[in-house]
Amino acid sequence: MSFRLRHTVRFHLERLLLRGAGSRLLFIAGVIILVTVIGGLLAHWGSGRFSALEEALWWAFLRLSDPGYLGDDEGLVLRSVSTLITVLGYVLFLGSLVAILTQWLNKTIENLEKGLTPISKKNHVVILGWTTHTPLIVKELVLGGSRMRRFLRRHGKRQLSVAILSEQTSAEQRQELKGLLGEHWDEGQIIFRSGTPLRRDHLHRVDADNAASIILPGSDVGSQTPDTADAERFKTLLSLFASSRENPPLTVAEMFDASRMPAISSLYQGRIELVSGDEVISELMVQSIRNRGVSAVYQELCTHGSGNGIYIVEFPELQGMRFCDLFALFPRAVPLGLLRTETGAGIPYLNPSGETVIQEQDRIAFMAPTRDSIKTGESPEPAGKSGNSFTDRPEQPRMHRRVLCLGWNDRMPLFLRELDFSPRETFELDIISRLDSSLRQTRMERYGAPRNGLVRNFRGDYIAHGELARFTPSAYDSVVIFASDRMASREEADARAVLGYHLLQKGPESSTPRHILMEILDPENMALLEGSRCEVITSPVMLSHMVAHVALRPELNPIFYQLLVSGGVEIAFHSAEDYGLEEGGWDFHSIQEAAQRRGDIALGVRQGASARTLLNPDRQRRLDLGAGDRIAVLTSNRD
Q: What is the mean pLDDT of the chain?
């Protein structure tokens, strides 16, 4: 056989074997037939025992497939041929078949684990993308409680089903969810599929057209810039829009740049709720600088993990009642405002005038520990003509703040914009970061120059030896430690933030900053800060909870937006004197009435001794108000 012929035969044999298990079985079947024919011919011609060739071929096949016949043969030639065929039977008939079938089975299981086969579900929840927020969103969906039960009833489901489309599924993702959910892990509830949401055919793998809700999670670390991430969400919505379904499912997307939200909303044919994560966290940080400790109140209301949450309930029987009369009617909940249907959309009115009349189809937003606790008590006496008398409110003095920012992430320009929002405040903002100062300045200029403050950029590493001493942190009103979004993982970002906090605490107490606000990314690292004197915001937890609950109850999104982003209302701490309350014991209903006369809604009491805020306290409990205590209120921004 020539050299070229040998290579030609080898090449075609290779192509045949690489086609799959069927081609390999066909090749082995051909070899078995060849061995059977050769063995049968040798036995027929060499032994003289067989009268017909067919009998010799059957004899050879039996020895090839079953070694138990070896002892029945007589004669040297027949035993030699039988031994050779039997040995080849072990290799070809058993060994090759087992190897091919095992390899085929392993490859089949591997392909199934990759999640390439489409699912067939209806009214399930689809999460498009595996990011640092995805596990927290899944946890909140699984532990959604009464809100999840009502969601399932609305869609005629008994059990939650979550389908996650990830570019590369892995055992680590499954193990991370299993560890996060603990005893609540259910293999049948969560389905992984491989693919990218940028391709329409990959969306079919999670049956996105028949989902009840679709979630596009954000991320806090990674190589993507905000512009790239928002562009991918834009493309994903175009892929979803290509669906032929008349009523596309509700889609909840977490965006980075809020200026793109109107353009993206106009793309999608179905209902879409956009959560501006950077705006939410930036506003929360600024509010925490203005009202120290208020971040804990916002996080309690928006995370629904423990304490009080926000619920929207319809009470048709209360139509025609004034808003101020609701406070005494609900002994275990605090009315926050109304969600009024206008032009087909729900428009929130938080902290409305006390004389606002509840109209038909109005829904009421409450702060309450659970949905079941929002029940009317005994009918109260109608409140007097309280209205919202803003003239009695003490005028807030003008403030000048000095803020030191350690580190940088892409929400810094929004943080600066929110800090520059109030005309009653001026500020000085110093930023220390390893990122090039000119690059930082360019990114901040996208939102315009500050009107009420001065910004200075410094190049440096705040965890380097002696770096912080150059700036005298105790001379600032607040020091803010930003979690870097340029680290490879949350652990690295949090490690820098925690080290920065301990460096600020190093040295005499006189040099310690008066207020430290720190952002961390991994909730497990909260254990490292137990007993610390800093205010901590766990941004992924808050955003993931918000996204998950908007997916279950989309009416919450405009409530969250007005409460955290729009600037119309805010949560603040005011002294008891601002509401005409003297020091001493007061029940919470009396505090509510006093706050309402000044146009605010009392939410709870911040006790100076413990620095904790007690929200929605028992109405029968007497609250001792001292000089350091503050009333937590929902107030309208009237600057």
A: 83
Give the position of tokens 């705040």.
462
As a whole number of Å, the end-to-end CA separation of the chain is 95
Check if the beta carbon of residue 311 is closer than 8 Å to that of residue 375: no
- Residue 178 Cα distances to 183, 214, 542, 548, angstroms: 8, 22, 21, 18
Q: What is the pLDDT of residue 67?
A: 66
Residue 119 lies inside a defined structural domain of this protein:
no
Distance, in Å, from the CA atom of 247 to the CA atom of 250, rounded to the nearest integer, reads 9
Amino acid type, 91: V
CB atoms within 10 A of CB 193: 22
Domain membership flag for residue 325: no
Q: What is the mean pLDDT of residues 33-45?
A: 79
Q: Can you tell me the distance from the alpha carbon of 21 to that of 44, in angstroms, rounded to the nearest whole number? A: 34
Query: How many distinct structural domains can be found in the chain?
Result: 3
Indicate the SS3 state at residue 129. Answer: coil
CA distance 556 to 551: 9
Q: What is the residue range of 504's domain?
A: 392-539
Q: What are phi and psi of 194, to 5 degrees?
A: -90, 145
* Bridge pairing between strands 601-607 and 569-575: unpaired
DSSP letters for 323-337: GGGHHHH-TT-EEEE
Residues 233 and 187 in one domain: yes
Last residue of a domain, one of 270, 305, 322: 270
User: What is the arithmetic mean of pLDDT over 385-393?
Assistant: 44
Distance, CA of 439 to CA of 437 (rounded, Å)? 5
